[in-house]
Amino acid sequence: MGILLRVIAYNLVWAACVLGAANGNTWIGPLAALVTVAGHIAASRQRIAEAKLIATLAVLGLIVDSALMHAGILRFNEQALIVPLWFAALWPAFATLLNTALTWLRGRILLTVLFGALGGPFAYFSGAKLGALQLNNNLTLALVVIAMEWAIVTPVAVWLGQRFGTSVKGQLFESEATDVSKSAAPIALEGGN
Asked: For the chain, what are the domain ranges?
């Protein structure tokens, strides 16, 4: 599974989660995430390391987004102790990008912070506009808090990806050597640490 395919798969999972929830089909997104994560792990040279990374990000995401929900920044139709499964399923899907499409962020802390601070709020705002969730009535407050969340979580996620994903020749996936030359983004593959 190449880098471009992983990016497409993640975006399809995002659409399935958000549009599914907006239309009352909350099971579609988690199913799409499960298929994507399973395919990702199956393609990995280090399945256990990738599974640990994905599980770690899933727990981290569940905690931070549930905290935002309890703080009133995020609201869902389903009221529970934690965010709904369709929303939580986005985190393991996001984790599949850390050792593939997002390796170019490694060692670039300011760029990683900016990437998270802009990308996180954009995704949440888009999800709200599509009807999958609601943001706090003070939209500016909600977007600033979400930006702060992602400005912190993104560098942590990239670091975790590097920590869990270091392998022989710096390549976690067999197809990555050919995908790097085809990628539009500058990918910085690193040797074992």
From this structure: 3-180
